[in-house]
């Protein structure tokens, strides 16, 4: 199914983006700002965020608002703090883009005792979205857009909730056989399940929820895992899309007038895509939701 209708709904809308200082997020922020939207950037580095803010303001034909929010999205405490700052400073949020993500090659835990890849890639969008839902509800038509990946197809048998931190994937033969990569794939599956379950729970409201696959993109992704990872990514760049190409479906989801037919769905290349059986498992999505609520200490009605 290909949907071609594009309407310029972005002027004067407020779009909040995580991971907007590099790669897909930066390309999306530039494109959305160029269409006249106001932007909120959630970043870790103040200097880099200010640099991007200046770029966005200079490239637009009319003045736009660019807000900077600093947070470590692997930390639930930091997410709660930045969500409160956003609510205090932003009377309007129309689009929330959960784009920040990473792959950690070694087992690391957050201050809350959660494995780092899971915390950043899944629990961060789960918690941030939940804390901003009431403000999104105040928009005439709001959207949540989650960056997933075709890598979710690596997961064949669901999620092991009895070993939610996945320590075994980072040791011995499991690690040599790509355990950390499988862990990343689990988080991308979680993004899809979160999208579908949130969409179901929000019906019927003014909020639609979407996820997309940007494809293999040449960016700074996986540059934090040593020489081998950097060398691998350098080779893969020859077969990769540009960040602008990777962000294209995200921008399409943000600017199209009617996305009701895509609510809760997974897209790539501006098309609906079929999912694996495990990615459409309603019971798995519900169980993931319950586990996520427990992990962040939050209950969403």
Annotate the secondary structure layout.
Elements lengths: L13 E5 L4 H12 L3 E6 L2 H14 L6 E5 L5 H14 L5 E4 L17 H22 L4 E6 L24 H5 L2 H24 L4 E6 L13 H11 L6 H4 L1 H8 L9 E4 L2 E2 L9 H15 L5
Parallel strand pairs: 1-2, 1-4, 2-3, 4-5, 5-6, 6-7
Antiparallel strand pairs: 7-8
Helix pairs in contact: 1-2, 3-4, 4-6, 6-10
Question: Your description of this structure?
Answer:
The chain has 301 residues and is an alpha/beta fold. 43% of the residues lie in helices and 13% in strands. The chain has 10 helices and 8 strands. The protein has helices at residues 23-34, 46-59, 76-89, 116-137, 172-176, 179-202, 226-236, 243-246, 248-255, 282-296; strands at 14-18, 38-43, 66-70, 95-98, 142-147, 207-212, 265-268, 271-272. It has an 8-stranded mixed β-sheet with strand order 3-2-1-4-5-6-7-8, with helices on both faces. Helix 2 (46-59) links the parallel strand 2 (38-43) and strand 3 (66-70). Helix 3 (76-89) packs parallel to helix 4, helix 4 packs parallel to helix 6 (179-202) and helix 6 packs across helix 10. The chain is globular and about 55 Å long. Mean pLDDT is 91; it is low at 229-235.
Brief sketch in words of this structure:
With 301 residues, the protein is α/β, with parallel strands linked by helices.
List descriptors:
301 residues; alpha/beta; eight-stranded mixed β-sheet; 10 helices; 13% strand
Strand content: 5-15%
- Mean pLDDT metric: 91
Strand order of the largest sheet: 3-2-1-4-5-6-7-8
**What does the main sheet amount to?**
8 strands, mixed
The rounded Rg comes to 18 Å
Q: Could you give the distance between the termini?
A: 33 Å
Structural class: alpha/beta
Q: What is the number of strand segments? A: 8
Identify low-pLDDT runs: 229-235
Shape: globular
